[in-house]
Amino acid sequence: MKIKEYFGSISQLEKKLSAWIDLPISLRVRSTGTRNITFLFESFSEEEIISFFKDTIQQPEHAIVGYRQDDIYGDILGKCDYQDVLYFEGIGDKVYAYADNLTLSLKNKLYEIEEFSKLYVRISKSFIVNILVVEKIYPSLNGKFIIELTDGQNLTVSRKYKKQFLEYLED
Length: 171
Fold this sequence. Notes:
Blueprint: H1 3-6, H2 10-17, E1 25-29, E2 37-41, H3 46-56, E3 63-70, E4 74-81, E5 87-91, E6 94-99, E7 102-106, H4 110-116, E8 120-122, E9 127-130, E10 134-139, E11 145-149, E12 154-157, H5 159-170
Antiparallel strand pairs: 1-2, 3-4, 5-6, 5-9, 6-7, 8-9, 10-11, 11-12
InterPro entries: LytR-like, LytTR_DNA-bd_dom
Organism: Lactobacillus iners LactinV 01V1-a
GO molecular function: DNA binding; phosphorelay response regulator activity
């Protein structure tokens, strides 16, 4: 996350956090090498933490907020700009957002993601793709399409969603 892009300078971020001064939140900025900021929330519900990131610290409109896997800390609340998401995948009752170098586990359902932005189009029962990252479209067997994304991945447009996908491209 780029601090200046979302919050301005560190001092501006500290001012935004000043209302939370009496709460058990620590802000640590390492000044050597890679700069990391760590928020430590103690005794807060998940809803309160998400509210903090969505409302208190002003993020770009339509930021995607979910959990990312971290080897050291376990699941960590993370976010990315909705335009950076390549595609969403539903696996069982879980929904994942995939960006270039980030995977977030979301609380949303796929149908909610579909309504989130006009950039997203459903291509199968389990996948929604960001139309801006579709590089190439190839016909496939059985009336399906294969789409190639800007990162080289291939996804299949199912027959059920083929018509909807083509109509979306025409608009």
